[in-house]
Every structure is written in C-alpha cells, then in structure tokens.
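Sample entry copied in:
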Amino acid sequence: MNILSITRHIVLLVMAAILAACGSSSSGTATAANESVQTASYKVEYIPVTTAAEGKSAFKIRLTNRTTGAIVTGKTVTLTPKMQMTGMSHGTPAGAIMDNGDGTYSGTIYYLMASNRADGTSMGTWELKFAIDGETATFNPVVAMGMGTTPRTTLKGITDTISSAMGNPPAQRSYYLFNDGISGNTVKLYIAALDDGMMTQYPAISSGSTLHDAMNASWTANPVTVALSTDATNWVTATDDGSGHWSNTNVTLTAGGKLYVRLSVNGEQKTVDGLAVAGTNGYATFSIASGM
C-alpha cells in the first residue's frame, strides 16, 4: 500500500468516526434537543414543548423499543436535573413525569438559571438524566435566559434553616417562586424550597409538604399561605392547588406593572433577605411584561 492509499484510508476512518458521533448515542448521552439516546432496551428522544429557559419549561420524551421500534407505554420515568458548574453542582425543581399513553411522557422543569451569561460566556452545563427500569438517558439542553415577565423570584427563611455542606453553619432556607402562568387576571405560581446543603432536593411547597431542618429532622409545612397584590397594600389569597401549584383567577394585572407575592410557612413570613419583616422585604416582586 503506497503513501497516498494509506492517507486516504486514514481520512476515511476519521470521517466514519465523525459521522458515527453525529448520530444516536449508544453511551446514554446526547448534547442537543431532539437527539435520541439508546439505552440497553430503549430509544429515548427528548422533545422540547417550550424553549428551555430560566423558569418554567415543558418537555416530552418519546420512548420506543430499541429493537422493534414499538412505542413503550406504562413506564415510570424519573428525572434528575443537575447544573454542572466549575467546582460545584446543584439541582433544580421539577414536576412528576406523566405517561401520555402514546409512547410520549410529559414533564415540567423549573430552571433556576440559564446556561450562559448575557455576554454568551458559559455558566455551566445542564444535565437531564432520565431513568427507566434502571437504565438512564442523559440530555444536555442549552437553557436560555428568562424573558418577559419575571420567570422566578426567591424568598428566604428567617429561623427556618437547612444543613450546609462541608460542616458550615446552618443556612437560611431558600423558597423559589416560579411564574407558572401570569397573564390577564390569572396568576399561577409554582413554589419549591431547597431542602439540603448539597443542593439536590427541591420539594414542592403546599400545605402538608415535608421539609427537613438543619439537623435533618423532618417537619410538616402546615399551614402554608400565599397572598397576592398589585400595590403591596391590598392582598388576596392564592388557592393551594396541590403539589406546589398556587393560583388566583381574579387579580387585575397591568402590563408593565408589578405583582407582589407574600409567603408564610408555619407562621413565619419569608423575606427577600432573610431578615425580620420590615417594609418591602416581606414579599417577592414579579415585573409584568409590557407586552402582556
């Protein structure tokens, strides 16, 4: 074999490897939405329903038999989301995944942050790990910055604390309030809380939710109350719809205006800075998009 033939052979091998890498992954990982992942038994496809962005994002996965191509229904699918950053990682809240009965499964994830800063530099990589029958498929969607009406806000506990990593003192618990649908006269919120120092557990907050204190002792969040206002003076109560979802369909929202949200758990009103309630720190603020 002459030098030209050897060179041509090497080029063909490299091209074949590149083309193989561009197709479905057999390693259980895909880097872009709508790429499929093949596990030992299944072909898994991640399908964005809404653009992955800071705040609420909806998705589906499609599940088929790897060998026959037949749709797979009736499976329990779980999701473990993680933001991989330099020197640390953390999770984010997510709802249960529902079987649609047609080979697709629907879910909602509430992203705490975008993948990139405003200047385009990376803050980290989101990892969505789906588990089916002990087999896992991982996707890495690029999560955009939130646009329009504020996607989420944060309140903190005052005496309500959680354990910290690396033996540090207890930390004040963060409560994350997500825009679950704020438009017209309707306010829908999803509320979750950080429940561990490793930043992996984010239980939904409704009356009856179980949380853990700084010594990891469990306690029940009851009562939980959520109040809404557009002027921080007149307040109406949101209805607890269960599993962290809260709503009120009689709030007069104004484009370019504000929505204020007050959260109390077991009698403690949460604040933006973890300090005692004093004026404007006693509620979270959503800015309503001017084009609402």
The chain has one helix and 22 strands.
